[in-house]
Amino acid sequence: MSTGSRNKSPGGRRQQRGIPDWGCLLLLVGCVTTTGHHGPGHYARTSDTATAGCLRNPACYTTTPGEEAIIPWLSNAASAARSAPALAMLLAEADIKLVEKTLTECAQAANEKVNQEDETLKGQEPDRAECRKVVRREGNMDVTRAMELGAKKHDKALDCAREALKALAEYVRVEPTYQKDLTTGVWRWIDPKQVKEWLQLGLTAQLWGALVPDIVIHAAGNPNKVQRVYDFKFPCPPTNKPQWGYYAPNQPHYPNTQGKMYEALGGEKGPAFSTPGGIHR
Known about the structure:
Blueprint lengths: L12 H5 L20 H10 L26 H9 L10 H25 L10 H5 L1 E5 L2 E4 H20 L7 E3 L2 E4 L6 E4 L1 H9 L14 E5 L2 E11 L25 H5 L9 E4 L2 E3 L1
Parallel strand pairs: 7-8
Antiparallel strand pairs: 1-2, 3-6, 4-5, 6-7, 8-9
Helix pairs in contact: 4-6
């Protein structure tokens, strides 16, 4: 149950970090308001997500006083991008590792926050029996606790990453939309303004088969030159290994997995999971 249940223990970091203040983000970026990202999430759940019930809940977090900010290097990286040929710039491996560290921190904070707020868990990790409990029915599918908890954690991790990586907007996209060019067979990034317009006009058919990974690292200013692809996953129970979900028979990429489809976007390495326990491929 690892696809819909996104829930892995952050290990011993809870006592070290404490529970973060979700009213604002990093000391580096200060307090902010998240807006304008719920639209793509709705069609992403039908065209790209193998697990249903992916609710979007706003959240962010901050570091603890005395602890190093997660991404103090972002302003330097952004300055370097502006002073170099933009489309030729790729993030160095060391900087990619720091982005991955940020994603792990976001996953850990999301995991802890949801567990703390849950009336049953009260800060503890769910066990296998808890993960399998059915909480409601949606269409023809049972929604389990694993799926419910995973969706909430996924939302918080996404919003955390959206704010934490703001300074690297030239290199990093959160929930970018890619659609296949039927003429060339090449997957191309779709501007969020175009996506929003299609959704407002009810032209959801334009987004049929679109891929919407959680995080994409790409060449500066060029989201079509993909370096790395990541999806947040919270296995439930946390001892489970994260796995790519399969598309259902009524979905456009059946019988492939999300991971298999993300490979079509390109990149130096295959798509990876970002979990509270780290990055996994």
